[in-house]
Amino acid sequence: MMKYDLPGKVKEQLELKRRTDPGSFEYLIRPGGYVPPHMDLLADAIIALSMGKNILLKGPTGAGKTKFAETLSHLFRQPMFSVNCSVDLDAESLMGFKTLAYEGDKQVIDFVPGPVTNAMKDGSFLYIDEINMAKPETLPLINGVLDYRRTITNPFTNEIITANEGFGVIAAINVGYIGTVPLNEALKNRFIVIEVPYIEGEQLKKLIQDTTSLTDERTIDLFVRLSGDLITAVEQGKLPEEAASIRALLDACDLSGFIQPKRAILRAIVDKLEEEREREFVKNLAETLF
Q1: What is the pLDDT, as a whole number, of residue 2?
Q2: 189 shares its domain with 259
Q3: Are 154 and 161 in contact (CB under 8 A)?
Q4: What are the residues facing 107 on neighbouring strands?
Q5: pLDDT tens digits for 9-20?
Q6: Per residue in 133-186, pLDDT tens?
Q7: pTM, to two decimals
């Protein structure tokens, strides 16, 4: 399994953590980047990737898994190619496809590389989003990409591709959603799993301040409280996970810079829910706070 060099600043902080365990990598993260609830999450992801291991970010929707992957890409100074999984994902979506092209007046068959091919040849990160949305028979195609071989035979060109130095794989998974399937053991065992919980409290407040148009501190504090109440309701089984999506909350905060918070919550959170009981629950929370 190939290993990768970290940028110097990241190396220094990892070494400092090994010696003193300061518990913070926050200064490494650019504004708007993912700041995890526990800095060990970031440290463990950095260490695993630097050792050449694949990581699987596991957590509820809107918890920041994609932002986490983007932050890791930034820290490693690595571009990132993405695969968005669905039941329609096929070999062409992963590897690329053949198409007709012209060389002068002559018509030829050309191959347009897909994200797996590009990431391997470029020595970049590959991000596989919602990996458990793909059909079980599709993903075994890349088993060799995910283990020590880092190699695949392109089924469309018969080219044997071995990943260049710097290639790494980050995947994300939402558990228990309609349309998802359990990962088979052969696939799961190729990953280091990192649980990504919701961001709460002061970290959520800072994220709202850094990434949305909302500036009123009192309103921001109320949105932080609303998020905590929504998370509690999800944990108690009163609401589905999407009701506590941090992504949706940030959208509501953004809108609240220009319209009333209750209306912003209606547009960004309430109207996404399927059941009237769930919608009324969130509207009551918003009414109580705002």
Answers
A1: 46
A2: no
A3: yes
A4: 102
A5: 455 555 554 444
A6: 888 888 889 999 999 999 999 999 999 999 998 899 999 998 655 556 677 788
A7: 0.79
b/e for 159-192, b at 16 or more Cβ within 10 A? eebebeebbbbbbbbbeeeeebeebeeebeebbe
d(CA 265, CA 6): 41
Q: Residues 134, 152: one domain?
A: yes
Reference 192, options 165, 169, 225; nearest CA is 169
**Within-domain flag for 3:** no
Cβ contacts of 21 within 8 Å, gap of 6 or more: none
Tell whether 1 is covered by a domain.
no
| 116 sits in which H/E element | helix 115-122
Host H or E run for residue 58: strand 54-58
Assess whether 147 and 222 both reside in one domain.
no
Domain of residue 225, residue span:
201-289
Q: Which of 50, 75, 66, 34 is nearest to 168 (CA)?
A: 50
Please say whether the beta carbons of 129 and 82 come within 8 A. yes
Which two three-digit tokens encode residue 232?
Answer: 């509690």
| Domains contained in the chain, number | 2
